[in-house]
Write a structure and sequence with these properties.
Layout: H1 9-28, E1 36-37, H2 38-49, H3 52-56, E2 58-60, E3 67-69, H4 70-84, E4 88-92, E5 95-98, H5 101-112, E6 121-128, E7 138-145, H6 150-157, E8 167-175, H7 178-191, E9 203-206, H8 208-219
Helix pairs in contact: 1-2, 1-4, 2-4, 7-8
């Protein structure tokens, strides 16, 4: 873990949300659409990350003098956050499953319409090899995902008969307030007259350097 262990409930919450769940999500991809026991993956990662002494450390329950083990607190927070943050779908009996790509992308699109959202995410930019030019502007698609998998987002978008070749991901950026950042990029490029008039949305005649400079500028303000 990148944060030092502390025997507190707030530490467990933050460790579960920001460090343990992303690792669990990486492992869970191997299950595809098949249900899996979240607690089994959680126990394995906890044993690899913490000493038994740390996991057996007892902390007070909320608003109570009763104590419980750190491992038990993790056992509460991981499934709670996994379900409420829509990392996984709870199918009952301790089983969880990955959301389908369609559901994940629909969620990302919903976030994209709400620029007041505080959700973090990934800004991605891609194009096609036949369109890419060196030291010149060329068509680039700029979008967002809150699922943590920009490659899957791009591949899903390009599963259309109109796509003439495989996409090339040109860059990804983890940002805060991802919807607001995406909106700022689109607005800036459109104001500069670089928005392409095409059936597909979010396409601009720009460069990766220009997109990155806008992101860096906007991140100072969000």
């Amino acid at each position: 873990m990148t944060t030092l262990f502390e025997p507190t409930r707030s530490y467990v919450y933050n460790a579960a949300r920001y460090e343990l769940l992303p690792k669990i999500a990486e492992i869970a991809r191997n299950f595809g659409d098949e249900p899996f026991l979240l607690r089994d993956i959680t126990k394995r990662l906890l044993s690899e990350t913490y000493t038994q002494e740390q996991l057996d450390t007892r902390v007070k329950k909320a608003k109570s003098d009763v104590t419980e083990k750190i491992s038990t607190v993790f056992g509460f927070y991981v499934p709670f956050l996994a379900e409420n943050l829509r990392v996984f779908e709870n199918v009952g009996g301790g089983l969880f499953k990955n959301y389908s790509l369609d559901e994940e992308l629909a969620e990302a699109d919903a976030v994209a319409t709400d620029i007041s959202s505080n959700d973090s995410g990934i800004i991605y930019a891609y194009s096609f090899s036949s369109l890419i030019k060196m030291n010149a502007k060329f068509p680039i698609k700029v979008g967002l995902t809150t699922t943590g998998d920009a490659e899957a987002r791009v591949v899903q978008q390009c599963k259309q008969t109109c796509c003439f070749e495989y996409p090339t991901i040109l860059g990804t950026w983890e940002v805060k307030r991802v919807a607001a950042v995406e909106d700022a990029i689109h607005s800036t490029l459109e104001a500069r007259g670089f928005k392409r008039k095409a059936p597909g949305t979010e396409w601009f005649d720009t460069t990766i350097a220009e997109v990155e400079s806008i992101i860096q500028f906007v991140q100072l303000a969000v």
